[in-house]
């Protein structure tokens, strides 16, 4: 036994199997006790020592276990799984004296464990071969099998076809059907749209079904069942691809009639389209009952996909032409399309109803008239002619704008007062991001929660490091045992201003408190917080402010004099109440403590200045302190300027010369619409060097930065909580790239800016305009949240936002269809009046184009829907609307323009040109030098 433990401690894993096999049963039990103690000991070692013996410990423990359950648990232990070469041949060697039944039990138990990979699948397969028992078919084992198949496709220099690999695998007939029963498909089951290809899983499985390896009828049944059950879109597309390649027979299609109707009503678009095509075939064979058709049509015509709705109306039209007697059952289903948002859909449904209305009875006619009452003013004349007095005028209900409650300021909870509470909170925050490096930019953070949690933890560490340092450091060491930076020290990326986050900042403070940062590293790393060079971006500059604060806090904790931090926010936005900051400075004066320069500078940037008597009172109280910091605070409160005043951008009109092409506008730089900020000398003179970038003049520059992610941005808005326009100006390039080039996640900081107590000006509206045109839906959702919050707070200038949107569309920076989607979402929440105000200012510029912008009809549809709900009272007539509505043809743009025009009634629709001064009253006249 001693020899075995010696080999394990030395990491000689190849020597372990023979040493295990020479032990008898009591000897193995005794050795297992020692191995368990060693496993506990190893968890506290550094990673290099752990890696050296991990494989030997795994093999020895597996060989010494006498029970199959314990052996499976030992082999599956997460702390023993970090190896490069598979240890399973050595484990099999250490188990070769076991009874076959015991090995079969081990295979069954191990196959049920999670996270099985290619190596584990091979291990289980070898166990079952030796034991001569069937392969245990579990979901985890199937996942391991798909990994093995995927590796086999690329293992050789000459790529093998997937069908060939599956044919050669002896377990394919058993494992492949399990794919159709798993809750989710393994990620290795790739799928792409190539109808004639067999070199992906759907094609390969269907080829095997054709060869008789798999049961074709079973696959058809399982595909239908999985499509009925729903699930992830990628899984649904996979099963649909298999089903389409299997080509269900006429009997199979008829047997699943109810399933096709359910899929057409509720399935994702590709599934619904396939089900609809099956229903068309069933109708052509005369086996689709009218009642079933009416039921599915009622649900399908309610869907938003226009292609599906048009196809269903076409099918209904064919059935009605073939047998007009079905009109009594089918026309009420057709009337469901009256509620569709597409005006062309409404017109098609109305024409179909009009054609077969004479053959229906009075009850159906009355039902159809009731449904037609929901049609808008553009159809009112046709509806009245069809139904006469049967259509009752809808009662006029006063419109009420529905906006979310204006967000109220929430006080920051005080820092934990006991060491145990603080250690628990700090450990939870640090461990949640212990493996953080470059996180995907798609993860948009809860900005307020991120900054408030960090600030509470930071203030708590400063307070308790002064009063309970020994207990605090001991608790942190125990709670953070095994965390990488505690074991190996801080990594360079954790102190890199280009990508630092609040979790990194907290790690810096903890590492310094635990003595893990040398003086040399501290000096070198803190020097990086000074921004130099003309190419420094806003992300790095704001991150450097955070880093400078945490390094200063670390030094303050080492000295043990600072009782608390001055810059700890009062409110969830990051703002500090002026009266509270005065009291903190008074406590510092009484304790004879000198404020940290970075801490005090951040406190100044966060202080709420107030207005009127409140402002004067706070400044007087600060001045009465009789200290240099008190005088600086008083002067800061009395100052009128923002941290970095925003200049106005020069793009004030929509004017697109017909001869100027896209690349010419790009080449001349005319496409960029950004804003500049003016310098603030007081920041460069009186603030620490890490803050100087904030006080420099910043010119508009479209600089795309690849080093940042929105999940790291929670501290940006809290750096300047009272100056949302300034931050919007600095971060504008991110929003430009989100709209123009599809950068994902760049809008994450904008809703927090909308909650800022500071004034919202032109830069914020321009930033919102970019965000509403972002490429990715989740970014547009964040933009809609921002719009609604600004409207709820009374800070939204809808006309200004509309003009900015028109300018961005004119310069090809924002797509009309994306903007229509975002504004439509905002209107659907109940903010119709707000959205209509924006569109009334945006549409004139777009309607003036000689060539209609793409998706203009969608934008007009949103405007018409809003106007029908809230009315047009107080909205100036939209220039160009009548001319667009009067064009020839029946395009979506012309129809929706006519629909919107109808909401204005007899009012004049061509507005007079505004005076020159009014036309240029946007956020931009020209750059103010």
Which characteristics define this entry?
two-stranded parallel sheet; single chain; 0% strand; mainly alpha; 929 residues
Sequence-ordered SSE layout with sheet pairings:
Elements: H1 2-10, H2 16-21, H3 25-42, H4 47-64, H5 68-75, H6 88-94, H7 100-111, H8 118-131, H9 139-155, H10 162-168, H11 172-175, H12 201-211, H13 216-229, H14 233-246, H15 250-255, H16 257-266, H17 269-284, H18 290-300, H19 306-322, H20 327-334, H21 343-356, H22 362-372, H23 380-387, H24 419-432, H25 447-467, H26 469-479, H27 484-488, H28 502-513, H29 519-527, H30 538-559, E1 576-577, H31 578-590, H32 597-606, E2 607-608, H33 612-623, H34 628-638, H35 662-668, H36 681-686, H37 714-719, H38 724-730, H39 732-740, H40 750-754, H41 762-772, H42 777-792, H43 798-810, H44 816-828, H45 832-847, H46 856-870, H47 881-885, H48 892-903, H49 916-919
Helix pairs in contact: 1-4, 3-4, 4-5, 4-6, 5-7, 7-8, 8-9, 10-12, 12-14, 13-14, 16-17, 16-18, 17-19, 18-20, 19-21, 24-25, 24-26, 25-26, 25-28, 25-30, 28-30, 30-32, 33-34, 38-41, 39-41, 41-42, 41-43, 42-44, 43-45, 44-45, 44-46, 45-46, 46-48
């Amino acid at each position: 036994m001693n020899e075995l433990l010696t080999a394990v401690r030395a990491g000689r894993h190849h020597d372990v199997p023979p040493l295990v096999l020479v032990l008898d049963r009591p000897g193995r039990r005794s050795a297992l006790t020692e191995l368990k103690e060693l496993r506990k000991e190893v968890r506290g070692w550094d990673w290099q020592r752990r890696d050296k013996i991990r494989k030997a410990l795994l093999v020895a423990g597996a060989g010494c276990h006498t029970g199959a359950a314990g052996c499976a648990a030992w082999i599956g232990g997460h702390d023993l799984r970090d190896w490069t070469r598979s240890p399973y041949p050595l484990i099999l060697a250490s188990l070769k004296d076991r009874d076959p039944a015991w090995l079969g039990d081990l295979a069954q138990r191990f196959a049920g464990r999670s996270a099985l990979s290619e190596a584990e699948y091979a291990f289980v397969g070898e166990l079952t071969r030796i034991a001569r028992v069937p392969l245990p078919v579990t979901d985890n084992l199937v996942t391991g099998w798909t990994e093995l198949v995927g590796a086999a496709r690329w293992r050789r220099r000459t790529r093998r076809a997937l069908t060939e690999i599956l044919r050669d695998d002896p377990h394919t007939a058993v494992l492949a059907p399990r794919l159709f029963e798993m809750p989710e498909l393994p990620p290795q089951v790739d799928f792409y749209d190539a109808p004639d290809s067999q070199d992906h899983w759907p094609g390969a499985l269907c080829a095997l079904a054709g060869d008789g390896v798999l049961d074709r009828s079973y696959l058809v049944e399982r595909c239908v069942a999985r499509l009925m059950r729903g699930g992830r879109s990628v899984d649904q597309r996979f099963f649909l691809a298999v089903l389409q390649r299997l080509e269900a027979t006429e009997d199979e299609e008829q047997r699943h009639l109810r399933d096709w109707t359910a899929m057409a009503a509720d399935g994702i678009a590709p599934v619904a389209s396939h089900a609809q095509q099956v229903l068309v075939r069933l109708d052509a064979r005369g086996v689709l009952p009218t009642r079933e058709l009416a039921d599915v049509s009622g649900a399908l015509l309610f869907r938003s996909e226009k292609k599906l709705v048009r196809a269903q109306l076409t099918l209904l039209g064919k059935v009605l032409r073939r047998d007009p007697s079905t009109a009594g059952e089918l026309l009420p289903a057709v009337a469901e399309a009256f509620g569709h948002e597409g005006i062309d859909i409404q017109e098609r449904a109305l024409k179909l109803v009009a054609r077969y209305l004479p053959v229906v009875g009075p009850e159906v006619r009355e039902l159809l008239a009731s449904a037609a009452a929901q049609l808008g003013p553009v159809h009112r004349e046709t509806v009245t002619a069809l139904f006469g007095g049967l259509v009752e005028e809808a009662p006029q209900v006063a419109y009420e704008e529905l906006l979310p409650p204006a967000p109220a300021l929430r006080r920051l909870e005080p820092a934990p007062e006991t060491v145990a509470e603080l250690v628990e909170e700090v450990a939870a925050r640090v461990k949640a991001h212990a493996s953080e490096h470059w996180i995907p930019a798609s993860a948009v953070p809860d900005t307020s929660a991120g900054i408030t949690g960090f600030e509470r933890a930071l203030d708590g560490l400063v307070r308790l490091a002064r009063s309970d340092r020994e207990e605090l450091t001991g608790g942190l060491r125990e709670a953070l045992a095994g965390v990488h930076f505690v074991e190996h020290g801080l990594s360079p990326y954790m102190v890199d201003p280009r990508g630092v986050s609040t979790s990194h900042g907290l790690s810096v403070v903890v590492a310094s408190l635990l003595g893990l940062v040398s003086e040399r590293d501290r000096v070198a790393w803190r020097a990086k917080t000074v921004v130099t060079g003309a190419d420094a971006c806003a992300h790095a500059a704001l991150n450097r402010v955070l880093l400078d604060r945490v390094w200063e806090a670390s030094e303050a904790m080492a000295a043990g004099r600072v009782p608390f931090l001055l810059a700890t926010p009062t409110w969830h936005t990051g703002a500090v109440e002026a009266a509270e900051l005065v009291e903190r400075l008074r406590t510092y004066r009484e304790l004879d403590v000198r404020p940290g320069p970075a801490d005090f500078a951040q406190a100044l940037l966060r202080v709420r200045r107030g207005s009127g008597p409140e402002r004067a009172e706070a400044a007087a109280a600060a001045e009465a302190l009789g200290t240099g910091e008190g005088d600086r605070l008083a002067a800061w409160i009395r100052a009128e300027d923002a941290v970095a005043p925003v200049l106005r951008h020069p793009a004030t009109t929509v004017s697109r010369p017909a001869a100027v092409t896209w690349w010419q506008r790009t080449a001349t730089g005319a496409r960029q619409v950004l804003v500049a900020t003016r310098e603030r000398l007081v920041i460069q003179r009186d603030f620490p060097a890490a803050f100087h970038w904030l006080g420099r003049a910043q010119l508009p520059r479209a600089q795309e930065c690849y080093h940042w992610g929105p999940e790291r941005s929670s501290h940006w808005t809290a750096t300047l909580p009272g100056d949302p326009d300034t931050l919007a100006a600095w971060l504008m390039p991110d929003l430009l790239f989100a709209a123009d080039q599809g950068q994902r996640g760049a809008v994450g900081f904008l809703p927090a800016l909308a909650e800022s107590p500071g004034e919202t000006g032109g830069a914020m509206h321009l930033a919102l305009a970019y965000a509403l045109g972002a490429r990715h839906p989740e970014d547009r959702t964040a933009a809609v949240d921002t719009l609604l919050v600004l409207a709820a707070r009374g800070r939204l200038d809808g006309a200004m936002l509309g003009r900015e949107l028109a300018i961005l569309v004119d310069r090809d920076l924002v797509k009309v269809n994306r903007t229509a989607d975002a504004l439509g979402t905002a209107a659907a929440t109940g903010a119709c009046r707000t959205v209509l105000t924006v569109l009334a200012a945006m549409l004139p510029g777009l309607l003036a184009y000689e060539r209609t912008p793409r998706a203009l009809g969608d934008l007009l549809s949103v405007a018409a829907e809003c106007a029908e709900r809230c009315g047009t009272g107080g909205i100036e007539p939209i220039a160009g609307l009548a001319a667009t509505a009067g064009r020839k043809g029946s395009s979506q743009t012309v129809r929706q323009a006519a629909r919107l025009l109808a909401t204005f009634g007899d009012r004049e629709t061509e507005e007079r040109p505004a005076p020159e001064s009014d036309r240029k009253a946007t956020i931009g006249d020209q750059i103010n030098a």
